[in-house]
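Async update (no meeting this week)

Hi team, since we skipped the sync, here's where things stand on the single-chain job. The sequence we agreed to prioritize is pasted below, unchanged from the tracker. I ran it this morning and attached the output directly underneath so nobody has to dig for it. Comments welcome in thread, and please keep replies under the output.
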Amino acid sequence: MDGSQDGSRDFGIAWDNFFNLVRMGASFSGRERNRAFLNTRDGRFSNISIGSGFDFPDDGRAVTLVDWDHDGDLDVWVSNRNAPRLRLLLNNSPSTARSLRLQLVGDGTTTNRDAIGARVELRLAAADGQAAAPLAQTLRAGGGYLAQNSKWLHFGLGGADRVENVSVRWPSGDREEFGPAAAGKRYLLRQGSGQATEVDATARAVELAPAKQDVPDASSRGAVRFMTAVTLPQLTAATWEGREQPLVVGGGRARLINLWASWCTPCLKELKELASHHDELSAAGIEVVALAVDGVGGDTSDPQNAKAFAERSALPFTTRRATQATLDRLQLVHNQHTSMHFRLPLPCSFLVDADGRLIALYKGPTTADHIMEDVKKSATPLEERFSWSSLLGGRVLMQPAAEDALKAAEGEKRLRLAQFLRRSGLIAQAVEQYQAVIELWPECGMAYRDLGNIMAQQRRPREAVALWTKAVQFDPNLVDAQMNLGAVYMNQGRGREALAHFEKAHELEPDDAEILNNLGVAQTAVGQYAEAIRNFERALEINDRDPRAHGNLARLLATCADAQYRDGQRALEHAKRANQLLAWRDVAALVDLAAAHAELGQFEEAIKRQTQAIGLAPPRAQPRLRSYLELYESGQPLRPPRPQDADSEPPQDADSEPPQDGDSEPPQEN
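Output:
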């Protein structure tokens, strides 16, 4: 939604900023306690949150009402985003007030069976000679976010003990009278019967016992285990003398990269613990590399303190100084794979498998037993790795549907990893992950699209086109892949094929100025001049500062093979605007300006601008531009070949370089 009408996606920007705050530690719910307010019937409300028992510190999402225990008053179900996901609050408050409960059934022809939309009105018996105000309710579907109230209508009657008449206006428009009803009873109202049938309040077969909510104690320890092993960027470490060296991972042995500092007491305790289990870790094929952060970045401690501790403790594994580049890259890896983007704590360890891939991240101290167990678990089949990496208990039921879902989840994780690697410049590793995605998820259009973009960057156009074609085959809604294919076909002079892709992109994003411009280019190439003019004009309504759209429209108006669409004066206006936007230094814009002058018979100006363009053009373009100059010198305007002729050229500025950075993210995990 563009609420400010300035061309930006306000709604999307707001959500992006919101989630950035959450990732940095801001509370999603604000930690407000639930509130309940009582209508005091004098225009005010009283806060009864504590007295009613509603004031739980839950992140509530919906409240639904039902007489769960059939005692005549309404009980409350509350759903939450966090634990407990459901709460039942039984209404056991003493009251002398009475109620009436009604269930409606439509006839299934003029009214839906659930009678949604029916309006019920009660006329109460007069009390002390005073006529009571009627009570009315409408039966609605839905009661809150992913929640539904009971379809029994519940009327509180106060001190009244009798209802003189029950009236229903059905969704069909018919009004039906059901006569009197007794307080404290339950009735079934069936459309067309004209009679209220009393229903016994039978006890529920399901009994719910109160349960205590066990909240785990806060802990400085935490582990993130990766179902999909993560390729690490290149890391470095420095000797105690400050000489920087590559940090080798993989090579057939697992490694624990541990971050610590001389002033961090838990760090020193953990290092001694790891040292005491050195032989066991080594026998399991695991090496420890301890990187001290003393004196790195904002840390002001002396690195010599860390060196002294390592020597004094005779640590049996490799100790080095961390580098700022390594800390930055490890922080980036952490942020990519966790929802909360806090600064890495100390101690903090990254467990890397024998192939150099991250399999676990420990925030806070860990143990040798956990490390060795995680190395073993990381090499198990997919369903076991899923259970191992899950933060929740339980067991995996590997039915075919569950297995397919798990493979899809694995594919999505690898897709995000591949996109992360690509953004980090690790192209070879990204290609490897994209290929793994396609093996797991052969119909993933985004993987083909992104691989095609990489091939285009590497100047491998045939492979790029084949991959983009697969991308739109599996996901026709990938706008950037449609645009890429359209641009390639346009530059090959295959206007009709290009047009099909630009039309699909336009169907998906009808108000995108770039798409409209490219669509106009393709329509020009196949002779759809009226449509091309409309789309260029629409593109300029959206973005008047696009020199390409101005230039393409100017060229069409100045040189169109069909005389009815030529308009030299308008062509001149748009060509001048394009040149103003490009500071009068763009070859194509100057060529368009020369063509507009020639169409108006202003050949001296045409010759001047064409000569200026030739002076700026690369040598390979000059023969064609000189042929235009010869036309103007002979007093002839420019007329390109008719569409689909063998020698035809696409109009200028038809996006010869397809977009390369269209990575789209899959659904986040909440």
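Quick observations from my side:
Confidence is low (pLDDT under 50) at residues 1-8, 644-670.
The CA atoms of residues 408 and 441 lie 6 Å apart.
Reply here if anything looks off.
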